[in-house]
Each structure stands twice: as structure tokens, then as C-alpha cells.
Amino acid sequence: MDTIFALSTAPGKAGLAAIRISGPAAVDALERLNPDVPKARMASLRVLRAKDGVKLDEALVLVFADDHSFTGEKTVEIQCHGSPAVVSAILTELSDMPDLRSAEAGEFTRHALENGRLDIAQVEGLADLIDAETEAQRRQALRIFSGDLGKQAELWRQSLIRAAALLEATIDFADEEVPVDVSPEVVDLITATQTSLQREIAGVKTAERIRAGFEVAIIGAPNVGKSTLLNALAGRDAAITSEYAGTTRDVIEVRMDLCGLPVTLLDTAGLRDTDDVVENMGIDRARQRAGRADLRVFLLEGDSLPDVPVQSGDIVLRAKADLLDDPGGAVSGATGQGVSELIADITEILQNRSADVGIATRLRHKQAMERALDALAAAENLIPHGETQADIAAEELRTAIRALDSLVGRIDIENILDEIFASFCLGK
């Protein structure tokens, strides 16, 4: 592999900056900056100099052997002062070395994948960990980055390999009297794997929402106080409010962190019949986004519900609690009455929905597990036919194994690598 280098910390002025060099010529590159190379896995302070002897900086230098580095190859990390001038000077010096080149986005992680330090699911988990904004996102990404999905996939794989081996034994000894009927054990192995896969598939939708964020739509008639409530929930003036009906004509989004859960609040256009073409476009968008949202908060004046179906778990409140004689079951964005209770209700509902989250987090994971389930169902249907269909059942089990292998990148990953690494920054 090429020896690559890049700034691994955010660009701009800072107290410290980290520059990473990885590849067979990494230590040689450090020797050109300072011939006194520290021992592997030891941090040492060194003066770095350009090829003409000019001092570049005084930096903390770490050297990692290939069996103890993130990438699985010789790696040097330079922790220098974080001024743009210092960083630029060191990067320029490295770029002038003939056996080094600048890293592409995500290339350090790609080297770790190709060297067997990470599987593809861990790479996805690392990308999510870098992007994590809330505690729930951090915990979920860390589970994947730690290899939990790969470990579970290996358990599924071993069970199916055992089942396929038992079936193939009946094929190999088809002309002999086999003393034990293996079909009960094969069926048990398949059934246990199916149950586990179904449980993981059921949790993918929730995992995707934790990764991308839950959507909560505020629904109601015009001038019922939706934008005022959004501003109260957000703690800032995110939406324009006025006494005129139809002020909100597009969906306004506000990102929030509710007890570690990523939540996007949606302020939608007031639902009513109107001849205004632009307002009608906003109302259509409101209905569409409300239908796709994970949770809807309905604000009502009077007893009439808007023409958007109330789904299980949705919150229905009366609007403008400050103007009501009996404010029970009501909320007011203008005074804040009932807002903290609403936040608590939204949080509780979404936390309860997050309880069934598994370790599979992406649509790709779900599709691979569904392919495995289809193959397992086909194998299960063939087993009662005995030796005559054992070879086909064994092939269906191998198909399921290949589907699960794609989870961690043993096969069929080239078409998704570019998409995954496009989300990485330089230096990672």
C-alpha cells in the first residue's frame, strides 16, 4: 500500500493539531524530520526540521508498529501546535517526500478494513460515531464500532454451517444406514437463527431513527399556535408568528436533543381549505410530512380534528391554554403552560419506542438479513422431504450464510464502499 498522510484534527487555529502518517514509509518520513525516532508505542518530544534544516516545530511524536496501529500498518502521529502556519509547513514538507502522498477521504479507515483491522459494519459504526450528536447516537454507534454486529453475524454463521454440515453428511452417506436422524437438530438450528434474525430486523427502523433522528410534527388549523409552540419547545424564535392565518407555508424544522435522543420538530402549515395556490402547496407538504413523522402533536381549538389520521401514540392537546377556563389537557406556547409536560411526554414515547433497538442499524443490514430469512424458509420447507432434497436445502443454507457474510464485508461490498467512505473526512 502507499504511505499516506493527512491532518487528522479539524482545520483552523487550535492549541494542538494531529498529523497522521500510515504505511511502509511512515517511520522513514519521521526520520527525515528528526533522525531520533522514538521507540514504538512511546510518546517523545522532538524538534521537527525541514530538509534544509529550518525548524518547523517542536512536537510530540508517537510511533505505532503495524500490529498495534489503527490501520494495521506502520503509523506515525505528530501532535504539533495547531496554528495553520505550523500545520501547513509540516504538511508541505511531507508532500515533498517522494514516497508519500496525501490521503483521500476515509483512506486511513479503508486501510484498516483492507488489513483486517475492521469489518465493514465497524466502518459504518465509526462513521456514525464521528457524526454522533446525541448520547443515544453515541451509544448505538459505539456498539457497532465495537464489533457487536460482526460477533452476532458470526454466531448465526456458525449455527448455519453446523446445519449445512449435518445435511451434507446425509448426502455423503446416502447409500448407508445413518443411525441418527439429523433433521430435528437442523430444524432447531434454523428456527433459532430465524427468531434472532426477525428480532434484529424489527429493531432496524428504530435504529435508523436514532441514527438520523426522530421526527415530531405539530399539526393543527391555521393560527392555532403551532409556530408559537415550536418556538417555545426550541427555546428560540425559529418560526415566524403572527395573528394572520396562513403565515407558515412551508415545513420548518428544528433539531433538538431530548434526553439523548435526536429529535427534529416540524412546524407545518395550518390545515384548511383555501384558494391560495402557494398556501395549498404548503398544506400538501404538511400532510405528507405529518404522515411520515414518527409522532404527531395535534393542537385543537374546539372539538374538531384536522383531516390527518391520529395514529397510536400521537399526542392530542387543546391549544392556547392561557385563554381557557379549564386548561387541563392544553398547552400554550405563548406562556409556556404545559410545555415541559409536553416535552416529557414526547421523550417518554420516543424512549419507549427506542427500547426495541437492536445492533443492526442500516437498510443494508435489514436487506441482508431478509435475504438470509428467505433462504432459511426455503431450506426449512425442503427438510421434511428427506435425502431427496437435502442437497438443495444445504445450498439454501449456504445462500443464507453468504447473505449474512455481506453484513461484515466478507463478500459483495465493493458496490457500497465508495458510498460509505464518501462520508468520511480527510485524516480518518
Unreliable segments of 5+ consecutive residues = 239-249
Q: Mean of residue pLDDT? A: 84
* CATH fold-level label of the largest domain: Rossmann fold
Number of helices: 13
Q: Strand-residue fraction?
A: 15-25%
Task: Supply the CATH superfamily name of the largest domain.
Answer: P-loop containing nucleotide triphosphate hydrolases
Assign a percent range to the helix content: 40-55%
Structural class category: alpha/beta
- The H/E string reads EEHEEEHEHHHHHEHEEHEEHHHH
Radius of gyration, whole Å = 29 Å
Provide the domain count: 3
Inertia-based shape: flat
Cα end-to-end separation: 16 Å
Architecture of the largest domain, according to CATH? 3-Layer(aba) Sandwich
Q: How would you summarize this macromolecular structure in one to three sentences?
A:
The chain has helices spanning 26-33, 84-95, 107-114, 120-131, 135-145, 148-172, 183-212, 226-234, 277-292, 339-354, 363-382, 390-408, 414-421, and strands spanning 3-7, 14-22, 43-49, 55-64, 75-82, 100-102, 214-220, 252-258, 261-267, 295-300, 315-318. By secondary structure, the protein is α/β, with parallel strands linked by helices. Strand 3 (43-49) and strand 4 form a beta hairpin.
Can you give a write-up of this model?
With 428 residues, this protein is an alpha/beta fold. The chain has 3 domains: 3-114, 2-Layer Sandwich (Gyrase A, domain 2); 131-209 and 362-408, Four Helix Bundle (Hemerythrin (Met), subunit A) (Up-down Bundle), CATH 1.20.120.430; 220-354, P-loop containing nucleotide triphosphate hydrolases (Rossmann fold), CATH 3.40.50.300. It is built from 13 helices and 11 strands. The strands form 2 sheets. The protein has a 6-stranded mixed sheet. The protein has a 5-stranded mixed sheet with strand order 8-9-7-10-11, sandwiched between helices. Helix 6 runs antiparallel to helix 7, helix 7 runs antiparallel to helix 11 (363-382) and helix 11 runs antiparallel to helix 12. Mean pLDDT is 84; it is low at 239-249.
